[in-house]
């Protein structure tokens, strides 16, 4: 009989939270491997409401009770970034395996400490950087590895994402107040850029060095949750140029908000024998339907590249739960076989180091290497 792992979810609000949209359907699609035991929120009443709406059996009175519960094998942490550190540390110390949303920590230091705790305790820490597991990215990785475009010469990416919406006036610029404060660790740089960099590096290799500009061109926005006009300390323009360890030059430009025509992601890979374009409606590559197109040799027109159905492997076709389910499937495999195929806390630290290098390069004006 296949072992089933019992999951407790921290942070679930039916219909609107990421856990409700992605984690619950992903875990239910993998019912041969996982069972959702229950949920903990900021209050027992909130947990009871979420459990009832989603159809879960148990609402824990608080996070500590969920972590201590002997019937919980895995703690899924799907709350705001500033709360990751304490919840993840408590779960690890209790001997639980952890699936934590990206960003793992509010900055590199927190991520490094959590990764060290996982290694010391001997539990599995998985981070939710699911973009590399999207079927289109997996297909792209295979195409590049087998020389579809020859030797890669360079890669460039332009995208929209992050908190600020609209294209001009104050009434168009609405978001949650939490996303406007750089101290919270949830910005255009850490979330959509971070997720998409995870996909880019999974295809083309690690980042060796970067130069960067981070600019806040929209200094205020309306907070949806309070209606207040708040100052924005997060950047809404992220410009990065650098080199991968393979010697491939890379450029990235993210701008805050949505694309006017919903074509919010254009990533190009230029090779000696052809080019591939990856596109999507926004720069959140982890949660958008991606489309591949290519032109090779003397071709002047890009043609669609269909991703084989085998890359979906019977998991949900909807992008959000499908990508998250692929990470959970790897987690189950790792727990059973002792492998390390799911994105780990050490992988998260490596990505946090790239983010930190971008921040350092922007602050100093000097090229920086992840370290």
UniProtKB/TrEMBL annotation:
<dbReference type="InterPro" id="IPR055080">
    <property type="entry name" value="Gal80p-like_C"/>
</dbReference>
<dbReference type="InterPro" id="IPR050463">
    <property type="entry name" value="Gfo/Idh/MocA_oxidrdct_glycsds"/>
</dbReference>
<dbReference type="InterPro" id="IPR036291">
    <property type="entry name" value="NAD(P)-bd_dom_sf"/>
</dbReference>
<keyword id="KW-0560">Oxidoreductase</keyword>
<feature type="domain" description="Gfo/Idh/MocA-like oxidoreductase N-terminal">
    <location>
        <begin position="5"/>
        <end position="127"/>
    </location>
</feature>
<feature type="domain" description="Gal80p-like C-terminal">
    <location>
        <begin position="135"/>
        <end position="280"/>
    </location>
</feature>
<dbReference type="Pfam" id="PF01408">
    <property type="entry name" value="GFO_IDH_MocA"/>
</dbReference>
<dbReference type="InterPro" id="IPR000683">
    <property type="entry name" value="Gfo/Idh/MocA-like_OxRdtase_N"/>
</dbReference>
<protein>
    <submittedName>
        <fullName>Oxidoreductase</fullName>
    </submittedName>
</protein>
<dbReference type="Pfam" id="PF22685">
    <property type="entry name" value="Gal80p_C-like"/>
</dbReference>
<dbReference type="GO" id="GO:0000166">
    <property type="term" value="F:nucleotide binding"/>
</dbReference>
<dbReference type="GO" id="GO:0016491">
    <property type="term" value="F:oxidoreductase activity"/>
</dbReference>
């Amino acid at each position: 009989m296949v072992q089933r792992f019992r999951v407790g979810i921290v942070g679930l609000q039916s219909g609107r939270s990421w856990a409700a949209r992605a984690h619950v359907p992903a875990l239910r699609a993998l019912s041969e491997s996982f069972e959702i035991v229950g949920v903990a929120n900021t209050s027992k009443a909130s947990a009871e409401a979420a459990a009832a709406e989603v159809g879960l059996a148990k609402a824990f009175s608080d996070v500590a009770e969920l972590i201590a519960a002997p019937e919980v094998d895995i703690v899924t942490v799907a709350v705001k970034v500033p709360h990751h550190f304490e919840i993840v540390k408590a779960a690890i110390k209790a001997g639980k395996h952890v699936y934590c949303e990206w960003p793992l920590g509010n900055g590199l230091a927190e991520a490094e400490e959590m990764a060290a705790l996982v290694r010391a305790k001997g539990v599995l820490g998985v981070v939710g950087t699911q973009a590399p597991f999207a079927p289109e990215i997996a297909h792209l990785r295979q195409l590049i590895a087998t020389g579809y475009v020859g030797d890669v010469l360079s890669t460039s990416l332009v995208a929209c994402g992050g908190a600020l919406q609209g294209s001009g006036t104050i009434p168009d610029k609405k978001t949650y107040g939490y996303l406007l404060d750089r101290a919270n660790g949830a910005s255009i740089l850490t979330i959509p850029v971070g997720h998409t960099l995870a996909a880019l590096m999974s295809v083309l290799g690690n980042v060796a060095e970067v130069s960067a500009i981070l600019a806040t061109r929209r200094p205020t926005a309306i907070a949806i949750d309070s209606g207040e006009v708040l100052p924005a300390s997060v950047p809404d323009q992220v410009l990065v140029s650098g080199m991968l360890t393979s010697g491939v030059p890379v450029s990235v430009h993210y701008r805050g908000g949505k694309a006017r025509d919903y074509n919010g992601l254009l990533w190009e890979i230029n090779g000696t024998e052809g080019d591939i374009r990856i596109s999507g409606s926004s720069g959140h590559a982890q949660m958008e339907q991606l489309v591949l197109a290519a032109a090779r040799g003397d071709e002047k027109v890009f043609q669609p590249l269909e991703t084989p159905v085998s890359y979906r492997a019977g998991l949900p076709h909807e992008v959000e739960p499908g990508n998250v389910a692929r990470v959970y499937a790897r987690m189950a495999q790792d727990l059973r076989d002792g492998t390390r195929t799911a994105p780990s806390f050490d992988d998260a630290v490596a990505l946090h180091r790239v983010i930190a290098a971008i921040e350092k390069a922007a602050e100093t004006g000097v090229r920086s290497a992840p370290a």
